[in-house]
Amino acid sequence: MKNYTITVNGTVYDVTVEEGAGGAAPAAPVAAAPKAAPKAAPKASAGGQGAVKVNAPMPGKILSVKVNAGQSVKKGEVLMILEAMKMENEVVAPEDGTVASVDVGAGDSVEAGAVLATLN
Question: In whole numbers, what is the pLDDT of the chain averaged over residues?
Fold first, then answer.
């Protein structure tokens, strides 16, 4: 018997497969119970949430994060790059301030309206 861990559409399954003996009828499959998918580590932030939320303008994938918590930014400065529909979109600071938290990381998928970062 061999044990495998398989992920299907984000659900993790532990599966046991019995090796067939020459000419023997295949064994009935062993049902696998879904396992909880591992949780992503929380993103780093300096001092919690800020007063100004920077939201995702559309669903997509974060390609890169250009700022860190505690960094000063000016209005219009690029905070991160969001890929949507095969295009790279700049997510910019809506006003001058200090980055209070960065709530996403490179490679994360986000929905429209999701909080990406906060400013003070």
Answer: 81
> Following DSSP, what letter does each residue of 70-109 receive, concatenated?
T-EE-TT-EEEEEEETTEEEEEE-SSSEEEEEE---TT-E
Provide the phi-psi class of 54: left if phi over 0, else alpha when psi is between -120 and 50, else beta. beta
pTM of the model: 0.58
Nearest-angstrom CA–CA distance, 53 and 31: 45
Output DSSP code: residue 60: E
d(CA 120, CA 114): 18
Position 36 pLDDT exceeds 80 = no
Per-residue exposure over 32-65, b if at least 16 CB sit within 10 Å of its own CB, e if not = eeeeeeeeeeeeebeeeebeebbebeeebebeeb
Q: Which residues pair with 6 in a beta bridge?
A: 13
Angle, alpha carbons 102-10-106 (nearest 5°): 25
Q: Find residue 110's DSSP bridge partners.
A: 60
